[in-house]
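Changelog excerpt

This revision adds worked examples to the README so contributors can see how folded entries look when concatenated. The first example is reproduced verbatim below.
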Amino acid sequence: MLLLPFRTSHSAFRNCAIFLLVTACRAIALATAGHLSLVTSAFAADPPITEAELVRRTQELYDSIVSGNQTPWKKYFADDCTFSDEKGRTFDKTKLVADITPLPKGYSGAIKIDKVISRIIGDTAILSYDANETETIFGQNLRARYHITDTWLRRHGDWQIIASQAHRYYEDPAVADPSQLLNSQHSTADFVGTYELAPGQTRTVTSENGASRDERHGRKSREVAVERSGELPRYNGKLFVERNGKKEELLPETSDLFFRKGIEGRILFHYDATGKVDALIDRRNNEDVVWRRVK
């Protein structure tokens, strides 16, 4: 009889504890559900950026260059960004924004982006693209192509460029117009010969007849007369340089300056005190590799 009240009290306590535990679990579940709902809503309100939006913002940047509008550059570049341009210069945001100024009087142009590739992962987006520039300087038209890669980063809900790298595509120079070579004092024969870099390392310059009757047809009589007189023997042939079985045409940029198609750098020739060619110079990025003439 003495144990009955104790058992009754213990049972009531146990039931009360279970009730409180269940109530607490329900409260935690509700709170967790509410929190998840808020997180889900937050993500729904701030979805990942799209390639189309990155392209729109990037084009907005380039469209602002002509007028010198700095606003998009201040908006889309992060305060701690780094920007490296096609000239090898590196800017922070302050210097970058300061470099955005209106084009001078008589200048106009546009930059349009093309061939876009993007990778968007979490809070990071990479946009890689070509930038095709057209520029008019007092009625003369110029074109250039660049490739640029921008890294966008989302911080505090805002997408901004944290790093940008640009390079310019190499373009061959224009081949000299025959009329520009009329006053040349040298002929292709002056350059023909063998040039040595080191023992066993040689390259040969040759001249071949590349002008057919059809190619000469229609030229001005002055040019044809000069050709026949031998005053301008370049019309009668083309120059080639050969090394290790690889033969490339030397295209004239001027009467004494040549380039090879698709290859950066220039080929020029050095003259001794008597006016004879004594060396071939392979100029790369403003540095010279000299090949001495041996025959």
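The second example, added in the same revision:
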Amino acid sequence: MGEVLPLRFGLSGYNRRTRCHGHFDTHPTPMQYVTWMKTRFRFVFLFASVMTLGGCAGSGDSGTWGWYVISPSTTQGMTNIQFLLGGLKDTIVLSLVSIALAMVLGFLIALPGIASNRTARAINVTYVELVRAVPLLVLILWVYYGLPQVAGMSISIFLASVLALGISDSAFQAEIFRAGIQSIQRGQIEAADALGLKYSQKMRLIILPQAIKVILPPLGNQFVYMLKMSSLASVIGMQELTRRANELVVTEYRPLEIYTFLILEYLVLILIVSAGVRWLERKMQTEER
């Protein structure tokens, strides 16, 4: 048996270092992973507590904090909290639909990138480079205000947000899919050719089942990215977390407290999603063993 060394805390959490044949196993155990997540949530709770105490101490006439605006102990504060949390559903739904669209477009754009035809590869490179060069905020504004004039049809705020977010992220998704597919050993593809499988059969039965293990972790990180970038949809009136915070600031004029609460909303949401992504990565690494 290997020699179990003491726990250490690093950027990736608590790791068990086990010396065995001159190597170290740094994969956290389930209990250590739970401890790591508790540490993160304790930090969030501590941060919220400090902000609350600071607000209580400075809520007088001479203070700079006014937590009464989002205090659950008052009717006004509870109403404001419910209003802010009401944007959580739109944020999650917008992110899920946008990431689904980005995955579909990204996969379709990735296929020409792995083709042997130069024209097909040129299409892939042109799309990726052009889309990545356009700032997301500019794309959102163009889709919502410019596309209706070009297409001669009205576009809802939700549809414009989904299209802009999905198209912008599809360029990154295309590179993820391309890299994942190209990571498959050449011998697997040659074996499929020897069996006489069609291109669609090779993709469905041989390549994608293996590539998905490489692709899934980056896709999870892109979903975290999508959750944060969905806040830009607030500029065209999408009623997500950031938009609701902006509207409440206009009525209450307490930007410090309201935007602090908004940060905590995103922080908790991203931590939960990040925990799911890490769990998925750990599960896939275990299955590969």
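Reviewer comment on example two: The longest helix spans residues 255-288. Residues 122 and 269 are 39 Å apart (CA to CA).
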